[in-house]
DNA sequence: CTATCGACTGAATCTGGAT
DNA sequence: TATCCAGATTCAGTCGATA
């Protein structure tokens, strides 16, 4: 058993919310054998940063399914995916969600993935348990299996739910990292990713080891968006360990629960081979991630904006003067770049970085341009 | 009140399932005043082909929200979207779903649209009531409102559930029309459509009449995919009548329920102005809609494949002869293009159109190529 | 007449730390 | 718990005015 210091410095996690210097033993980098509810009972309360769950889908497939060319579709018919009634599936779902909620930190988060067969039940139950849905994410499959019989729309997506511990609970979202990943546009709730096949798909003797292996790109985005380096991620339905593999690569700690020995063996072998990204790659992500909190005063201190500089709004309705401490003065009013802009406009809020402009070499630029220059210099 | 003959000839509806020559009075082309559950009680059982419902989402919004430029976001704050608890919302949902199920024909279908705030509750409840989810459809908005605070993923989609009356119930799906609409690819479960704005958005004195008016393109696809001309469509949350307008355009009958007089008035005015597509346009759709069950015999009859032509599989394991009635002969075996292909391969099924090939001008082509030529000629 | 620019808007569960 | 205040934050599209 590894020993984990659960208290970490995290941007949005105030010290009062985190357990104080509580050393707890967590089975990091291990796959717990047996039923996931039993396994999770071994985990201390409020010790996990993220739970990612890919529970059985409760697929109610009828007879065999064949493609138009006669070949057989290898459907999910494993015993672990059989539930007699909605009631049985609901009970099962409630049980594991209750344990997941207990082991999560107050600012931890839950992800669940499912299809229309089960996700509506899972979603309603987790809301009943107090989880607060932050987004539902659509994984739009770029290469889904067609509907061979032409009886319905091609089932081309699956759904993920991202939840905090409750309505008022804190949570972590790496907004910048996601925006960067999406070519400087906000990341949307629909993600286009291919299904897991090719070299990534684990096979044994020509057959896929697990019927519903998830693509690593999916876990990559989940972990990058809602965890920090060093966070502990638990997957109650570990399967062949996609969560563990990506966690290891991204420098996150992981714990799995899995009943099937075949899956556990395959997962351990797979994760063993996985190499963590080196520090520099992770740091680059970190830089993209953390908010560039620059005080305007820092620009003045460092000579990017000289005291006495005249700042004005786009329409030059107001012209203010920069003071040595980084505050602005307009007639008798003074304040921060944000506060003064807000006052003058009578607006509920104002982003001073884009509101105020200055002249530089005959060019008019928002002061945000100076901030960018400063950031570039500081990051080197 | 109009009088409707509920028995119609419909491809997949066997006579035994439809009520026998039962004449019932339905308020076609009318908006029923008042609560939708009360209103639906006036509708006879098993008389409606399709229910499309856009219920309140129970958004549970907090305080005000401003855009980064300081402008105010006009949120949905109407009373009709306010529920005290999940329990209250669930009760409301169960009530209208029970009535919807009663008035639907045995082979009728239900569509519901919602967001993550409500759709998981709606989905679980309709499953509990025996509705059978056929697909969940993701409406991916091409122009959603951004997440102004950078706190979550852009909420860029809404979800629709398409359900039959039960696991074994029949339903209608215009596979061909959807495939045609999607450039000859199977229509997928994710639809990219813009939100409703511009000239389509109903306004009164510069303000939107309804806060959540749905785009007509969405209803167009719903009605075209799962109803026939002349079907009766009921919308329990009629609002400003998008369902009615599109139904009228597509030659479907419609019934609405709506409590708010302002919405009712706007809807009636709007639908009044709507013009039905003329018969020829609808017939063209009809042609696209019904399965292109081109009998292989028709190709033979019309000279696209001559009797006596030798057909063979790709690997030329078998070579069969086309007979005058469109059947094939291989040694002592005969059968349809599909049946014989299946027999020879010992496969559970076979698509004869792609299995069998013929030579034409030195080129080897699947007989599906001949079918395409035939379809092109017939459609003119 | 066209091109450009600015204002406006859409089902949104939309901050956080210090006092 | 309530209040205050510093700081951070938007995409696609329509429409009308201006050049």
Q: What general form of chain A does the structure show?
A: elongated
Most extensive chain-chain interface? A-B, 59 and 58 residues
Helical amount among residues of chain A, as a percent range?
25-40%
Largest sheet of chain A: 8 strands, mixed
Supply Rg of chain A. Answer: 25 Å
- Major β-sheet strand ordering of chain A: 3-12-11-4-5-7-6-8
What's the oligomerization state? homodimer
Low-confidence parts of chain A? 1-22, 287-292
Q: Ends of chain A: how far apart?
A: 39 Å
Portion of residues in beta strands of chain A equals 15-25%
Order of helices and strands of chain A: EEEHEHEHEEHEEEHEHEHHHEEEEHHEEH
How many DSSP helices of chain A?
Answer: 12
Put the structure in a nutshell.
Two copies of one chain form a homodimer. The first copy, chain A, contains twelve helices and 18 strands.
């Amino acid at each position: 058993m590894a020993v984990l210091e659960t208290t970490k410095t995290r941007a949005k996690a105030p010290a009062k919310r985190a357990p104080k210097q509580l050393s707890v033993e967590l089975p990091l980098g291990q796959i717990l054998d047996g039923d996931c509810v039993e396994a999770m009972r071994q985990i201390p309360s409020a010790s996990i940063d993220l739970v990612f769950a890919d529970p059985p889908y409760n697929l109610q497939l009828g007879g065999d399914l064949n493609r138009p060319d006669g070949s057989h579709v290898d459907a999910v018919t494993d015993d672990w995916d059989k539930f007699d009634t909605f009631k049985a599936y609901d009970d099962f779902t409630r049980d594991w969600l209750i344990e997941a909620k207990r082991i999560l930190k107050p600012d931890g988060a839950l992800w669940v993935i499912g299809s229309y067969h089960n996700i509506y039940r899972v979603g309603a139950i987790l809301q009943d348990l107090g989880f607060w849905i932050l987004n539902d994410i659509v994984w739009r499959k770029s290469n889904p299996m067609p509907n061979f019989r032409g009886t319905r729309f091609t089932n081309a997506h699956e759904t993920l739910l991202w939840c905090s511990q409750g309505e008022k609970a804190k949570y972590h979202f790496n907004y910048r990292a996601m925006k960067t990943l999406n070519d400087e546009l906000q990341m949307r709730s629909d993600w286009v990713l291919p299904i897991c096949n090719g070299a990534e798909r684990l096979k044994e003797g020509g057959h896929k080891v697990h019927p519903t292996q998830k693509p690593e790109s999916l876990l990559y985005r989940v972990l990058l968006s809602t965890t920090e380096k060093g966070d502990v991620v638990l997957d109650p339905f570990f399967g062949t360990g996609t969560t563990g593999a990506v966690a290891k690569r991204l420098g996150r700690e992981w714990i799995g629960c899995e009943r099937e020995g075949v899956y556990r063996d395959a997962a351990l072998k797979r994760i063993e081979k996985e190499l963590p990204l080196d520090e520099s790659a992770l740091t680059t992500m970190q830089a993209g991630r953390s908010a560039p909190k620059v005080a305007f005063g820092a620009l003045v201190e460092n000579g990017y904006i000289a005291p006495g500089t005249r700042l004005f709004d786009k329409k030059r309705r107001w012209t203010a003067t920069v003071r040595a401490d980084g505050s602005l003065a307009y007639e008798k009013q003074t304040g921060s770049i944000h506060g003064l802009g807000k006052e003058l406009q009578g607006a509920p809020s104002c982003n001073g970085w884009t509101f105020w402009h200055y002249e530089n070499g005959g060019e008019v630029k928002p002061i945000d341009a100076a901030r960018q220059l400063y950031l570039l210099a500081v990051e080197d």
